[in-house]
Amino acid sequence: MRILIVTDAWAPQVNGVVRTLQAVRAELGGMGHEVSLISPDQFASLPCPTYPEIRLALARGRAVGQRMEAAAPDAIHIATEGPLGLAARAWCLRRGVPFTTAYHTQFPDYVARRTGLPASWFWRYIRWFHGRAEAVLVSTPTMERTLKAHGLSQTRLWGRGVDLNCFTPEAAPHPALANLPRPIQLYVGRVAVEKNIEAFLRTSSVGIKVVVGSGPALARLRQQYPDALFLGSLHGKELASAYAGADVFVFPSRTD
């Protein structure tokens, strides 16, 4: 099967959406499917306001449509609600081509935290964007209930997996965690305001707090919380070693 994925999030970005899509493409390819991609690196782009690490594609609808036609897909999945997702959605609707979408994060809450505007405003956009999809893929039952409460009933559960070749109980602890006071409390993820990391860093507890990841809030948090250990982005076996060396995993986000 020829599968086309349209996404506004792709490398060199490091986030959950990119990691998910990279894994999906690799797994589908291993199953014998032909997977093509339309992503921001194929177009001129500009930095996203308040989050310059994310590039927004400056792509005309015609250019996106030409790439979609050239891919001649049997199935189309629109992974994100950004400029490329909008162009792909419009192309599909004009031609009566079915497509699926995915809801990766609590987008209205995420944008509300960055803009100061009410989340209810952005739910209108979410309902409009995903409402015409054949199915909206969600990662958890909680996310499924949230979308149904907002009028999107065509949800399908799309769980996440773990690479057991990398993340195993036998993984050696990361050397940076050796001889640290216990318990070692670990956060892994993007270092940004919507992840609510400061709620974790402000807590008074024994041991040490460790943050793995990068993002727009990293420099400020490093300066503001010198007692915490910031390791930056880790990948693969190095990331597995950070998990192996920790005692507690902490994920304070309210938008995931």
Automatic annotation (TrEMBL):
<dbReference type="InterPro" id="IPR050194">
    <property type="entry name" value="Glycosyltransferase_grp1"/>
</dbReference>
<dbReference type="Pfam" id="PF13692">
    <property type="entry name" value="Glyco_trans_1_4"/>
</dbReference>
<protein>
    <submittedName>
        <fullName>Glycosyltransferase</fullName>
    </submittedName>
</protein>
<keyword id="KW-0808">Transferase</keyword>
<dbReference type="InterPro" id="IPR028098">
    <property type="entry name" value="Glyco_trans_4-like_N"/>
</dbReference>
<feature type="domain" description="Glycosyltransferase subfamily 4-like N-terminal">
    <location>
        <begin position="14"/>
        <end position="164"/>
    </location>
</feature>
<dbReference type="GO" id="GO:0016757">
    <property type="term" value="F:glycosyltransferase activity"/>
</dbReference>
<dbReference type="Pfam" id="PF13439">
    <property type="entry name" value="Glyco_transf_4"/>
</dbReference>
